[in-house]
Amino acid sequence: MLWIALHLPLLSLESFAATLAAGGGEPGAAAERPVALLEAHRIVSANAAARALGVKPGLKRATALALAPQIVLGQADANRDAAALLPVAHAALAFTPSVSLQPASVPDAAADTVLLEVQASLRYFGGLERLRVAIAAAVAPLGHAVRMASAATAGGAAILARIDPPPQCADLVATRLALEAAPVWLFGPGREHWEALQGMGLRNLGDLLSLPRAGLARRFSEALLVDIDCALGRRADPREPLVLPPAFESRLELFARADTTEQVLYGASVLLERLIVWLAAQHAFVRRFRLLMRHESRWQQSDRTPQATTLEIALAEPSRDSAHLLVLLRERLARTQLPAPTLELCLQAEDISKRAPPNAELFATTQSENEGLTRLIERLQARLGAGQVQRLVALEDHRPERASALREAEASGLGRQRKSSSRQSGKNPARGTSAGDADAAHAAAAPPRPVWLQQAEPLVERAARPLLEGRPLQLLSGPERIEAGWWDEGLTGRDYFIAAAADGALVWIYRERLPLSRSANEEVAAASGWFLHGRFG
């Protein structure tokens, strides 16, 4: 077997920095200012900016504030770290179903290492090196520093991943050689007995293996030998694989309250990246997701501020493109008025679609063009509202002003419309021709018409010629006679012409063949019967 270990040495700081940036403002602010985590009023971890000011693990809180008054101090939280590590495991599930978490070597601490058994995946991904590159690319959007090591055993890979730089071992012999040079304190029980081991001159595993096993067991417990045997492949080390939950839910408690939608958006982007890797692990796409923003309580009896605001995003076509989902969320948040500051975010998704990923094509296809139009409509609906985005639909009526109507744009119907058009363009064996050819022939025989019409504008006639802006029009083609509306109150009889204006523009005009209605206004009644109805682009 071959195992890959993903160790996150800065997991606690990174999980806390995500909440800090979400509540604070700029995403890069946490990396520029000193940040440290506390546990029992002592520093347990500090970023590079804090270490540069002399803040290091073990210092008391007061000492750290004296060295760096501007430092941001947070509380270490194992649950927050576990929630941040889980998406890394989800990203790994896209490459192998055998993914597990390495238990923490310190009691009550969160795990910080993900293990992948990849022997069966090497051929599919083109070898170990290409697989490592693909795993690194999948984990990168989560924003964690990752050390990646490979070894023939799960325990060996977990230990070697903690070495900087981590060694890469392709077989058991190389794994054992690398482990013999590893410090003893990397093994779980070895950390507890590190001072005693160091006093005896036992600094690495090779030194420890030269001693009698019975004496080591009596002096340092049997657990140390068990860890060593599992890492060296001398003892079975079964791992329980991780199972994806049927629905996605991830929370992010903000370090400081978010007063603006931009601050909320950054926190939501962290949760969206977690959603994307959860979807990729099961080759799925999301149809609908919702963002819950839990607000600060006013602690007043008369306060009617809701506990949370829910923002639901429905997609016309299932997607797992983080950039597209973030754009939709940004547009919806821009139209949302927060009733109170936000303290916690929660992203949920249950409605997903499992299907093959879209193929990458060199040239544009009908599918890719349809996808671009769908996303444009989704973005406009997210910004303006669903009812504000409309499209023209054709109606069965010969009267031009009644031959089309505005309807609410439905991006989800674009794919079905394209498929319907494809079926209509197929051959008709009964007639020996295709419906598409018949439509094309009918379109070629019909006179050209402008796409955009305007409200009929009366024209003045002089010397039997209609005038536009005081200059005569030249009739180029026509007439096209339209008589319709006998079944309703809109009886119409017109002769349409294509005419050229003095500046060369083409217009669409008609002349009434029926007497004007008595209810028409005086301007139309005084006209000659010529009307301007459209302009050609």
Secondary-structure blueprint:
Layout lengths: L2 E5 L3 H14 L4 H4 L2 E5 L2 E5 L1 H5 L8 H7 L4 E4 L2 H15 L6 E4 L10 E5 L4 H4 L2 H12 L7 E5 L2 H7 L11 H9 L7 H5 L1 H6 L5 H5 L3 H8 L1 H11 L15 E11 L2 H21 L2 E12 L12 E12 L2 H13 L7 E13 L11 H19 L5 E5 L9 E5 L5 H11 L2 E2 L4 E2 H11 L7 E10 L2 E4 L2 E2 L1 E11 L7 E9 L5 E7 L9 H4 L4 E6 L2
Parallel strand pairs: 2-4
Antiparallel strand pairs: 1-6, 1-7, 2-3, 5-6, 8-11, 9-10, 9-11, 12-13, 14-15, 16-17, 16-22, 17-18, 19-20, 20-21, 21-22
Helix pairs in contact: 1-5, 1-15, 5-15, 8-9, 8-14, 13-14, 15-16, 16-17
Explain this structure.
- The protein is an alpha+beta fold and 537 residues long.
- The strands form 6 sheets. A 7-stranded antiparallel β-sheet has the order 18-17-16-22-21-20-19, with no helix packed on it. A 4-stranded antiparallel β-sheet has the order 5-6-1-7.
- A hairpin with a 7-residue loop joins strand 19 (474-484) and strand 20 (492-500).
- Helix 8 (154-160) crosses helix 9, helix 8 (154-160) packs across helix 14 and helix 16 packs parallel to helix 17.
